[in-house]
Amino acid sequence: MQIVKFFIQKSWLLLIAAFCFGVLLAVTNAVLSPMIEKNRIEALNQKMRHLISDANTFEPAVEGVVIADAKTTIYKGLNDANEPVGFAFVGIGSGFADKIQLVIAMDAKCQKLKGFQVLMSNETPGFGDKIKEKWFQGQFNDAPADKLQLSKSGNIEEKDDTIVSITGATISSDAVVSVFNTYIKEVKNILKKEGIIQ
Amino acid sequence: MSSNTNTISLGSTFSRGIWKENPVLRLLLGMCPTLAVTGALKPAITMSICVMFVLTCSNIVVSLMRNLLKPHLRIMMFTLTIATFVTIADLAVKAFAYEMSQTLGPYIPLIIVNCIIIGRAEACASKNNLVVSIVDAIGMSVGFALALCAVAAARELLAAGTLMDFSVMPDKFVPWAAMSMPVGAFVVLGLLLGFINAITNKSS
């Protein structure tokens, strides 16, 4: 009993402060969480709309699928006539400094890629963050939705399975290609299994 | 109010943070955000606002409970207080400036380990009354903001020819790519520190 009394005498301020700060954080989180979630969805929709420009709405095709130990949702882009015009999903991989999150899009038959947008990355400015640049992202547009290869040189205009890496940022370039190679195969299998594509 | 208010002028407390004891340019504290988020003016301003919020709130709380603080709990209480306000700042940026929160990445949560905040809690707020603590926090935050904005403005101008995303350089201007890289931050900060030292040495 004396130990408890001693403990409380020494740390009562810390206990009260921890409780008050905990309540303050819980209230702040309750107020701001819906706004943060709304922002997150809006950012994702904006990037999907950018990739599949002929889609007017997006709806989940398959929810909560686990690929590479991360949960993701495969979205279906629908045009005015409510026909599917493409699929998009968020892929996660290990970049140079931190995890990178990409929004990846494919056409309705899952035969060709429609490119990618960076949802989150902390790659090195001036090097790894060039994965956000148009010339690098453009290589993925209309590339076959199969296994991609990374090359140090090549023609970036050619729409094939070879992606030219960023000079000085091979790890970041490789991270992007790895995300594609991990996810594309799995997503196609899931969509086939669900009977969404043939 | 304690007797400290009478002995320390509020004006000098405020100006101390801007020039004489500028946390970045004179005390060399808070180097991590100074080097990391000064690629452009907008992230630098956002970081400065977050630091001002955290520093002011933590100084207020520490000053209010300074008479209850026991030596063995001091650092723990400071850390708990700072971590709380940093988490609030982080959530607020994510809610009201989502894109900026993505740009700043881990650097807002890293305010927790910013030496300016814990330094002012220890050196000022735990020894002075509420008014002095608030004025000190604002002075230090303004000093921090000015240093950050000076580095960010120089880097953005030379790296992209823009200020706050507005083009200000002539069309013929060739951007200095190095300025957007970490090396640019070190070079600009080094030159700024040299310039400030030259001024202070001359005036003394």
DSSP strand count of chain B:
2
Please estimate the helix content of chain A.
25-40%
- Termini separation of chain A comes to 71 Å
Supply Rg of chain B. Answer: 18 Å
Counted by DSSP, the helix tally of chain B is 9
**Secondary-structure element pattern of chain A, one letter each:** HEEEEEHEEEH
Number of domains of chain A: 1
Regions with little confidence, pLDDT below 50 for 5+ residues of chain A: none
The amount of beta strand of chain A, in percent, is: 25-35%
Could you estimate the helical fraction of the residues of chain B in percent?
A: 55-70%
The biggest chain-chain interface is:
A-B, 26 and 29 residues
Q: Could you say which structural class the secondary elements and strand pairing of chain B correspond to?
A: mainly alpha
Question: Which strand order does the major sheet of chain B show?
Answer: 1-2
Number of DSSP strands of chain A? Answer: 8
Mean pLDDT over all positions of chain A: 91
Note the total helix count of chain A: 3
**Overall form of chain A:** elongated
Entry keywords:
heterodimer; A: 198 residues; alpha+beta; two-stranded parallel ribbon; 40% helix; B: mainly alpha; two-stranded antiparallel ribbon; 67% helix; globular
What does this structure look like?
The complex is a heterodimer of chains A (198) and B (204). Chain A has 198 residues and is of the alpha+beta class. Chain A is built from three helices and eight strands. Chain A has one domain. Chain A is 40% helix and 30% strand. Chain A is elongated. Chain A starts with a helix and ends in a 5-residue tail after the last helix. Chain B has one domain (4-203). Helix content of chain B is 67%, strand content 2%. Chain B has a two-stranded antiparallel sheet with strand order 1-2. The longest helix of chain B is centred in the C-terminal third of the chain and has 31 residues, at 130-160. The mean pLDDT of chain B is 90. At the A-B interface, helix 1 of A face helix 5 and helix 6 of B.
